[in-house]
Amino acid sequence: xIAHTNEIQMQRAAMxxxxxxxxxxxxxxxxxxxxxxxxxxxxxxxxxxVLRGQKCTxxxxxxxxxxxxxxxxAA
Length: 75
Description:
By secondary structure, this protein is an alpha+beta fold. The protein is about 20% helix and about 35% strand. It has one domain (about 1-70). Strands 3-2-1-4 form a four-stranded antiparallel beta sheet, with no helix packed on it. A hairpin with a 6-residue loop joins strand 1 and strand 2 (about 35-45). The protein is globular and about 35 Å long.
């Protein structure tokens, strides 16, 4: 269900004229338990934004309002 929701979100962003280059794996800070947890983000322009509908693996709270700490990228 989450994957389907993310695809719809990316399609709506493309139709609205926002550039969504790709989905990337990132580390985000959970707003409830303040732990760093893995998540998927859409990288478009200068910012990576967390895709909607994802849950924290520790406390099960929503990661919609979380901030991206860093992205996993090969050097």
